Amino acid sequence: MNVLDKFLPRIEFDSYEDFVENFTINIPENFNFAYDVVDEMARMAPEQIAMVWCNEKGDERTFTFSEIRHYTDKAANFFKSVGIKKGDPVMLILKRRYEFWFCLLALHKIGAICIPATHLLTTKDIIYRNNAADIKMIVSVAEDEVIEHIEGSLPDSPTVKCKALVGGSRDGWYDFNKELDKASDNFVRPVGAEATTNSDISLLYFTSGTTGMPKMVQHNFVYPLGHIVTAKYWQSVIDGGLHLTVADTGWAKAVWGKIYGQWICGSAVFVYDYDKFVPKELLDVIVKHKVTTFCAPPTIYRFFIKEDLSKFDLKHLKHCSIAGEPLNPEVYNQFLKATGLKLYEGFGQTELTVTIGTFSWMEPKPGSMGKPSPGYDIDIVNDNGESCEVGEKGQIVVRTDKRKPVGMFDGYYRSEDVTQKVWHDDMYFTGDVAWKDEDGYFWFVGRADDVIKSSGYKIGPFEVESALIEHPAVLECAITGVPDPVRGQVVKATVVLTKNYTPSDELVKELQDHVKKVTAPYKYPRIIEFVDELPKTISGKIRRVQIREQDKDKDNK
Prior knowledge:
The protein is of the alpha/beta class.
């Protein structure tokens, strides 16, 4: 059972063209996902499975929609009892604990602002977030290092009034699990001024900060409805099925794949709570729990194909999607050969829902993001803001003159000037460069800041990185541009080697020749630097800007 018909006048489509032309979402007045989807599912199908949770220790829990409602009402009463009210910002650092779902939905019920965050934040990161968003409460996993960073932040965080621990007790902290036990399971939907409206802020996400300080992406209460497309038409989740998206709750990818669209479509979500990614263990739980649909970044699939997939009974797995970075065609082909399953790529940002995707009516082109989602008016524009020709590289923009897509952000919280920089003239500039082929498929090139302009050519870092990664010597690499008096810029590769290789002039030449064979010769890296590790954001994205800054500093010395 699902609640799709409450929001979609039409659910099934015959083709991609039919989908784009005729897909619409009916947006109810004062929509609140916690009441209008979760509580409604609990009323219609109380025993339907909402979540299957397990961890690497072997603990398992299954929750029905009725149980989810029960615990979220309790959590809402607890939050209310400690003074949390509509509009109050609350930060959740909960990894993959199932209590995250109780807290998120409880905050939705109250109308408070939920700020999911990663457990990898340092004291400095937490201070920045506490003050940028005036955070009133923090709910955290009971892990020593995380607790230490939170407590270290408090002297410089005057707005934080209380804090709660999940899975443990400590002086000065509420024991969330004990408080949950004590709380009433009857929470009445607020009315009047305390009720939520569609335009109220429901979520704030801090961006990963690849080029500067993290920005706060502001989403309203309609945002979950935008993920109907994500779940139903891109991830192809199944009513009564079980969907797994690999993501920590600190990142927006979690709400893309672990709650909103999936529950609207009647699919349960599968949560595997682990600290260390071990491909075999993840495959084992997928088999054991009969996961039906799966979404993960390319890295996961790269590790999967290194396993002997014939040893895993994946017959329950019906659809696999992929996002986060462009897909190397070799990974696609090997996974297809081993499983018979095609990989359906997609593109989006924390600011958006799935914006470009390979939908079920389309034949995947490995390495392509696919075509624009319905409701998104997508274009590729050059530096003058003019639409690019087929094959011409330019920046991906969302045109908002006719409509704002359902699920698109409302701007950066408390940063009107930053919002204006990327969203003006009825266009939102994604900062991502791509080109479109003659069939209308989009191909990712790289971040606009990262694209290298050399001798009149635009070179995207991904293509060169992808070529280098195919060489057995290369564990990781980052491609950047270095100023050059003749060519404007030349391509530089910063490379982390695999265990069996050591830096040498011979290896430099070998890697250069390899790239020339795999891609267009002009794209080869004229400079190769070997390093022990690459600079990264806390979300694991490579900070190419830092490499460029370090190179500048070297030049200035």
